Amino acid sequence: MSYLNNLFSLQGKVAVVIGGTGELCGAMAMSLAQAGAEVVLVGSSQEKANDRLARIQAAGGKGYFIAADITNPVGLQELLTTVIERSGQCDILINGAGVNSTTPFLEITEEEYESVFAVNTRAVFLACQVFVKYFLDNGLAASIINIGSMSAVIPLSQVFTYSMSKAAVHNISRNLAREWAMQNIRVNTLVPGFFPAQQNRKILSPDRVKKIMDHTPMNRFGKAEELSGATLLLASDAGSFITGEEIAVDGGFAAMTI
Fold it and tell me: Catalytic: 3?
């Protein structure tokens, strides 16, 4: 057990989880906290944060919530400044905020397009700029985990703007991994398969669920806590030589399309 603890331990680390009040990133934050990290949940809902923090604390972890505007650099810089003031450092960044849209392609407005990209892509771009400057200025080894999507890898119907925005996240993650590997800053993409969450429940009609299950060898949706293993691998020293990768947690969905 001491070997495993040393390999995956996050004792003394501070993890900022943007989107941490949501279902999937909230479960990821829980796993980081249980591995010893202090977690900072970033979102817009204090109520959701309180529920998640209560569960984290009940499991012996520690963390706190910061409300932040992640779509502009000022808000992100204020977020980082607050984290440094309260926790003294930051070692792990998870970019997991996301919004979805089911608007038919020919009906997508510029306003909708811009609003989806503002959260799913621009916020990731800006967070990487703000936090990596801090990592580089302080000579810190760090891990960035950007949340991608199977729809960025495999064409899926009804989620055009979401798929485009997430494909950009996959691309920037690979480019930044190459850029910063020599500085010991790892950048990876965690790619969930189908996990019921707030942003996709509205498109999960019975017919769509059947199609998803038909293409998922495990024949079920994922459970949020099943992202924990991949999260800890990418965040801890166990993944110290992993960067620029896309790690799918999808029940075999991607394998069915090869």
Answer: no
Q: Catalytic: which of 3, 113, 134, 162? A: 162
Element at 26 (helix H, strand E): helix 23-34
DSSP letter string, 31-97: HHHHTT-EEEEEES-HHHHHHHHHHHHHTT-EEEEEE--TTSHHHHHHHHHHHHHHHS---EEEE--
- The span from the first CA to the last CA of the chain, in angstroms, equals 38
**What is the per-residue pLDDT across 140-183, written as a single tens digit (0 to 9) for each?**
999 999 999 999 998 887 899 999 999 999 999 999 999 999 99
Residue 129: φ, ψ to 5°: -60, -50
Q: Which domains does the chain have, with CATH numbers?
A: 2-257 (3.40.50.720)
Q: Buried b / exposed e across 193-232, counting CB within 10 Å, b at 16+?
A: bbbebebbeebeeeeeeeebbebbeeeebbebebbbebbb
Task: Give the C-alpha separation, 213 to 18, whole Å.
Answer: 29
